[in-house]
Amino acid sequence: MRNIHNKILIGAAGLALMAMATSCDSYLDKAPDTTITAEEAFKDFNSFQGYVEGIYNAIPDKEKCHWCPSWNWGDDELMNPEADDRFTHQSDLGNFKAWQETGNWLYHSTDGNGGYHFGRLWTEGWGAIRRCNMTIANIDQMVGTKEERDLLLGQAYFFRGWFHFEMMEFFGGLPYIDKVFEDGMEFKEKRLSYRECADKAAADFRMAADILPINWDQTVVSSQYGLDGKNRLRVNKITALGYLGKNYLWAASPLMEHGAMVGASTTGETYKYNTEYAQKAAKAFKELLDLVESGQTQYALVEFNFDDTPGADGVARGIYDHTKASSAKTCYSDLFYTVGNNWLMPGSTEAIMQGLSGENGQANNCNWNTSKVFGPKVAGLVEHDNVIHMPTANLVDQYGMANGLPLDDPASGFDPKHPFKDRDPRFYHDIVFDGFKYVNAEGLEESKEYLRYCSLYTGGAMRDQAHASQTGYFIQKLVPHTCNIGDKDYDYPRAFHCYIPFMRLADIYLMYAEASAASGDEATAVAAVNKIRTRCGAGEVGANYRSGEKLMDEIRRERAVELSFEGFRYNDLQRWLLLTEPKYMVKYSHEFDRKEKEEFFKTHDPKDAEVANFRKKEILTRKLTAKHYWFPLPESQVYLYPEFEQNPGW
Predict the structure, then answer these.
(1) pLDDT, tens digit, for every residue of 531-580?
(2) How far is residue 499 from each of residues 61, 156, 508, measured CA to CA in Å?
(3) I want to staple 222 with a disulfide (CB 3.0 to 4.6 A). Which of 72, 126, 173, 227 is the partner?
(4) Is pLDDT above 90 for 56?
């Protein structure tokens, strides 16, 4: 009798735990190591689903995978010198081998000294794929209904495609493992090409989309086990369609069409996609969006609607403080974090693919250290380790003007004397800039009172390279500025909970725009971008940007803004063949002199402030070559057998 050795959940108690998505407890809690027979594990849906739940535990958490982790590896982020050992900085040096040595969601999730477990893509993804194959191979042992069978198989096919795809993004074509390898079997699976892998992943995503429900709440299984309203984190038809489209779009992209190269922006390859794969991507995204827009799903874009009521100082700070308008039913900020809401999982109605948020559902793990790595450490204004994530001027420059035009368009109205005025509304939600009121609470220690309003001009108190911002900005998209020693939104009673979704509806619209533009359907592409801009009150795509290369540039700029700091920038620059182009190799700060007196910011909106000598300054030049389009595979594994080849240049 064959035994199954793994961490699994068994029985009705296990299924109930899996459902606890709306509380502070994980709906996928892991049980201790258990040894059971295959006949017991796969005999019915209740037991079988307990086995499948182990797959969910392998989904990484980008933000909380390690002490002070990193997840932005493009031209978008800089970290202060305390974090030079993190992969964000090591990638700037071209040391891509460091992905195995630094705190990040691909490989390392604990330091062995109390660090939490939040999934690791490479080290746990292969085990998850084995569970998928075991599920498919043993499905005939289960006695149950067709719905139960489809739910199990749908999850298995989806995750087999998902874990392969997520690893392919960074490593290229891999062996596609679609069978069970028993003990004693020789493993010599060769690496496939990227598109060979993509075709296999597409078949798995398509199968999953065809048999999974749109909403588990509408299944007999959910009703039978009392799970209605508790299925939010389960993969479903929409999740599968989203990744079917994304998988095809990545296969269509310039990197997969032309191979790694330097100079694609000057020779034109950055705009040359594979039309066939782009059309397949657009078709999958349209199938998904037709379901959403016809009201057949639980998904919708969240509202970007913030309180514009002036405070006692006469300044409307609702968007700065992420205070939603009284008329709003949902809030854009809730996509990324929640505060004072009983540890509610972020994501609202827009998140399509999420994993667990903390071991055993302990959302307060957000406090260690995620909630304390985005603001100034000057005088202990933000507590804990002296590590800071900050946006580069490169990223800030992607945020265009309120009229929808990029900053470098002569008609945009951008004024270097008023660089923060009339910007895309998302700028005010995401970016902390000079004069921004950083601490709202009264009673701030007198020794820290000078830090209440940000001094981010050149030479200001918050421009210290070691303890504040080297770029001239902080970012509060993922963690609000009120996570500070005065406002204390990161303290336990405030129930702060943050999570970056792997996929959300706005991303679908922008990928649909890109796939449509690459397929020649430019009108559809423009409409998809405008859907996202209309949501936040930004101007639509300008008349001069609705076709050809300018349209593709606008789609790419829109991705940089809407998805900023969510961990997609490296893969976007990579697949567009822009990673090694000069424009994206240099990281910049913004330097300027403050003209207003300190008192100005106490009664005026900081966006109205006038500055002098506004300019960009080079901080560093990234040391990247063509080999950096793919991460190196672990050396210990490429030597296991000849067919598992290392990536070129490594």
Answers:
(1) 999 999 999 999 999 999 999 999 999 999 999 999 999 999 999 999 99
(2) 7, 24, 19
(3) 227
(4) yes
Category of 454 on φ-ψ map: left (φ > 0), alpha (ψ -120 to 50) or beta: beta
Element containing residue 338 per DSSP (H, E): strand 337-338
Token pair recorded at residue 50: 């307990």
Does some domain include residue 104? no
Q: Is 297 helix (H, G, I), strand (E, B) or coil?
A: coil
Determine the average pLDDT of the residues in 592-599: 97
Tokens, residue 73: 């590896």
Q: Identify whether the C-beta of residue 591 lies closer than 8 Å to the C-beta of residue 472.
A: yes
Q: In degrees rounded to 5, what are phi and psi of residue 337?
A: -160, 160
Q: Measuring CA to CA, which residue among 71, 61, 67, 79 is closest to residue 564?
A: 71
- Using the CB atoms, write b or e for 15-41: b if 16+ within 10 Å: bebbbbbbebbbbbbbeeeeebebeeb
- Full domain range(s) for residue 433: 309-348+358-498+590-623
Neighbours of 622 (CB within 10 A): 17
- Among residues 542, 548, 264, 565, the alpha carbon closest in space to that of 408 is found at 542
Give dist(CA 106, CA 443) in Å, integer.
42
Identity at 469, one-letter amino acid code: S
More confident residue, 117 or 539: 539
Q: How many distinct structural domains can be found in the chain?
A: 1
Tell me the average pLDDT of the chain.
92
Q: Is 317 exposed, middle or buried (0-12, 13-18, 19+ CB in 10 A)?
A: buried
Strands 351-353 and 503-504: antiparallel
Q: Looking at the domain assignment, is residue 139 inside a domain?
A: no
Is 481 inside a domain boundary? yes
The answer to whether the CB of 518 falls within 8 A of the CB of 377 is no
Cα separation of 58 and 118, whole Å?
8
With beta carbons less than 8 A apart as the criterion, state whether 380 and 485 touch. Answer: yes
pLDDT of residue 365: 84
Task: Identify the helix (H) or strand (E) that includes residue 77.
Answer: strand 77-79
What is the Cα–Cα distance from 356 to 497, expressed in whole angstroms? Answer: 12
Token pair listed for 647: 């990536």
Average pLDDT over residues 304-318: 96
Q: Which two tokens stand for residue 294?
A: 């016809």
Name the band, by pLDDT with cuts 50, 70 and 90, for residue 438.
very high
Please report whether residue 81 resides in a domain. no
Q: How far is 515 from 536, CA to CA, in rounded Å?
A: 23
* Residue 359, pLDDT above cutoff 70: no
Distance CA 464, CA 634 (A): 37
Tokens of 134: 């075991």
